[in-house]
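User: Hi! I'm working on a homework problem where we have to compare a predicted structure to a textbook description. Could you give me the structure for the chain below?
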Amino acid sequence: MLFSSSFALPSGGKFTHETSGTISKPNNNTLNISGNKQNSIIQWGGGFSIGKGESVNFGNSNFKGQQNYLNIAHGTSKSTIDGILNASGNNVFLINPNGVIITKNGTINANRFVASTSSMSDNDMKAFADLKSFDDGLSFSPVFKPSKGGNVVNMGGEINAASVVLQGNIVVSNAYADYDKNLGEHSKQISANEITLQGNEVYVDVSSINGNKLGKLNIKGSNGNNFKGSMYLNASGYYYNPNSFKVFDKYTNTNSNFNVYKYVGIGSDVDWWHFAKGWNERTWDFMLNASEYRLTNDIDFKGNQGKGVEGKDWQNYANYCIDGLGCTNMIPSISGVIFEDFDGQGYTLSNINMEIFLDENYRNIGVFGGFEASSTIKNINVDYEGGGIKIYFNAEDVGMINIGGLAGMIANAKILH
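Assistant: Happy to help. Predicted structure tokens:
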């Protein structure tokens, strides 16, 4: 049920702590929340979720200035944002000790958005109601309680805000990872100047964050060895959001247990598909942002399971097809060279079989196209497993072609064992 579209709009809402306003429902898919004062506290007896195709709007056009909205979700259910939360230039806080989920369909627009599972006392709510100005809402946050509680998970939703805070027992910011469907979904990110992720465990897929918009990423966790966390990026996410590699240079963290894997990881044929496609399309963002690629698993390219170029039970490395993505040439940089480092980390690329009909796009043929002097290739194993490279020439002159088992061309690059 977690990702179904059956979630109802927030219900049982009541303004408390001497705040006031209106909650209206113009249709079955829309809820409008309008506070009369600078600060509003709304307690939701029926919980706070937004289903797919639904929207919740915060703001009062008759109020001069921006507003702070604190939402307390009661009950035993998580808050799931599967639709649109629109607060424009206002600050919105969502508190649910059971957890908060932002799905791939979720969209949040606010000046500041805070999702927390740390419960708030009556005095905490009074302090919020008494905030002197809108600017006070820019620094107000629930006090993190390291006791085990609900989790806050972004599963690839879109968040547009100046500031974002996600706070829970386990905090995850993931990119939309269903690469077999709807390629347009991959562009969704958290676009914010400052992002704070705080929990007992924090995991960040940096492709979920807009590196061009980000000024600072704060990683905060419990003290000592109890904290776990990591920051990582795979080739599939990097292909769709190459600006995300910049996130690695914009984070702060004080806990040594937080692991930062500052490279583009390649752990499957789907990752390799995106890695190769990115280098063959040769867009500047893709080629220049990342500084290193690493294998994170063995990859079997399924090249010895059939016969002939028309065989359906095997994969042609030079025309590799994945359901939902289509087909692409798996030779990275067939018409040029790779000028970044590649570390195989001891993993193996295996079961490779190519049947190539030459045209003007081919210059370098191998598992890789080519590497140039500024790059280093190391710790990589290649096993064709009885496969190989079969080339078909046509009558036209296709020019000089470089062919090699590892790479078609290595121009003074370093190769290390």
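For your comparison, note the following. The two ends are 49 Å apart (CA to CA). The longest helix spans residues 269-281. Good luck with the assignment!
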